Fold:
Amino acid sequence: MEARDAGRRVGRLGRGGGDPWPAGAQAKEVEDEASLSDSFRYTHLSDALAALSAALGDARTLETVGTPDAFGRVLAKDVLAPRDLPEKDVASFDGYAIASSATEGAAPGSPVELELLPGETKAGQVQRGRLSEGQAARVATGAYLPRGADAVVAKEDVAAAEEAVSVPKAVARGEHVFRRGADVMRGERVLGAGRRVLGQDLVLLASLHIARVPVFREPRVAILPTGSELTSEIGDRREGKVVESHSLMLRRLVEGAGGRAETRLIVRDDREALVRSIRAALAKSDILFTLAGSSVGEPDLVESALRRAGATMLIHGVRVHRGRVMGVSMVSGKPVVILPGPVQGALNAFIVFGYPIIRHHLGRGLEAPPWLPATVSEDWEATGKFRDFHQVVYLALRRDPGGGALLAAPSGAETEKASFLASKNAYVLVPGPGGRLSKGQSIQARFLPGFSGVE
Structure:
């Protein structure tokens, strides 16, 4: 898709052309595909992602953080070693630093006697002066070798007196020595751009005395729940009130993807109030997720408010089940993801658009969540009038007790069943039409940080 098309609704790009949302028209859900295409055209997923990629452009923002604060952040540039590691030859054994040439010809029956210098060099210390060929110096593991030494003989392999060491065998150069640059050479790329910094990376950075690293700024993601019936109080049991629970999940999903989440106050079903809330949220965030208020069978409050707020609708309605009324718009260059109200539809919309957009802001492109190979444990087939759509199929993963492989049990469920998602720990995207999974089939089981896990 050409960049000039990015501002159009994706429904205009493929599969029939024409704007599926003429001004003032209300989309209505119908039973058969032919009638459906006349009123509300669902965009193919590949077209939707192409339009989104073109519209986002380069959304990355760089910043520099201290190494202790870099955990979990995504590196914006390659990290090059500013020095060798170790910077000098280091003893890898407790013993005696020596010149290996002094032990030539040594044997159990005719050991070589070396003068033992006083004291001992501890880990991280450097012994001053130079070691002559006929001398030995006590060193602990991690101590730098003195000048003139090129090997270490283990203390249990020698006979030591107060002023002399008896070496009963020839010692090779470099024996029990961790050579300069053996771990990392100066100028070597030690961590690549795009890597999410792990705990072990902090050890490496600190060991190289790298105090600060360039990272992509975590995108600020605002979550805006809509609905007059909603309450943020979990203990609110008033008749007609529904606990706004979905943002609890979405916050963790955003953080797992690498973003920084903020849940905004619930907005009642009032277009002008929603317009004000959208503008206020976008003023303080890079990405906005609207939650609920999007529908096919009734006037679409969120789309109307977004247009009033100056949005360009890229996508509204995708051939993905469930959550097919998901969408994306752009407001002043910032993406707004329309998440349906039902929990499964909201999660599907996050998988399809939310996670990739966050990863894009972190320099990873429209990246999908990570996956592991798994084997389907039972047959599954899409049903219903949307069986020709892509299906987000949730999986219950477990280890095969016989072989250790991952077994994936697929299942469908009613959109509103919260308990359904609580029993799942991965998903697979099954393309339509005629989506099905067969027992024994190998699949890519995807793990969504904040949702997935295998005991």
